[in-house]
Amino acid sequence: MDLRKTIGPLDNLIAFEAAARLMNFSRAAKELSVAQPAISRRILQMEAILGTALFERNGTKIRLTAAGSSFYGVVSATFETIERAAKALPRDDDGVVTLRVNVAAASLWLMPALGEFYSTFPDIRLHLVCVDELPEFGHGNFDLEIRFGTGDWPGLESHVLLKEEIYPVASPGFCRSHSISDLPSLGKAPLLQLANYTSPLMDWQLWLDHDSAPVVRRLTTYAMVLEAARFGHGVALGWHPYVRGFIETGELVRLPFKERTSSYREFLVVDPAKSRRYSVERTKEWIIALAARETAHGTSGSGR
Fold first, then answer.
1. Do 259 and 272 share a domain, yes or no?
2. CA distance 107 to 245
3. Which of 117, 134, 223, 293 has its CA 20 to 30 A from that of 177?
4. pLDDT of residue 304
5. What's this model's pTM, rounded to 2 decimal places?
6. What average pLDDT does this structure show over 177-191?
7. Can you give the residue range of the structural domain that contains 22?
8. Treating both helix axes as pointing N-terminal to C-terminal, what angle do 66-88 and 10-22 enclose, rounded to 10 degrees?
């Protein structure tokens, strides 16, 4: 059997599957890392060989014809069968993935979702190495790392996970005993300050009036800052992905100040030498998908 006689090069079939699944030639091109005209050309070639149209085209909009829909059902099921068979093949992979991550990201964002990971990938043994001060990547035996910064790490594969979005938060009890509605009143409240930070937005001085002289309580880890806020010890600067859950459960309240953003991001950094291991690739994909779901939540929307 030679499929090339029936559909042309196999790239044609891959292009058709992506275009039919995404219902968009441009998105299919982006997914396959090719130019959009290449997708159109491959599909036109396959339609010519098959002798039937697979898509109805109306400007940039497309939809499957009856023949295209029938063909896509078979192609999609076949691709899924191939994927399952590929995943079932024996691999030279012990299944151990070491992920280095700061304590805040591990405890406040990653940990609540790990049950899903363990059930989805029972054969992958994820080792979490939690640290407060991240050394330079490459100093140690790590497959993946969640790292905060601007993504400027030459020679490393990095993927944006979470953008920086910060706003003040406090416990409900603290809010009842402290009326905070503007910058002057914020400057009179006890403030919880992360002692060591990378982003300037985590410095309370950028948020306050210059003549403010607040009580500042310094803590060495961000997890401690948020714990102190939950216990009513002061106002914290809330990093949205880490405080969203506490706001939804009512443990923290977002104060009436507009969120601030910067060019800093949380990244997933991959050791290129290990990125092709099956267990590393699956773990990477899962973390990226988790971040995409978090991003879909957006901000709490209660700032002004």
1. no
2. 12
3. 223
4. 47
5. 0.66
6. 90
7. 4-88
8. 110
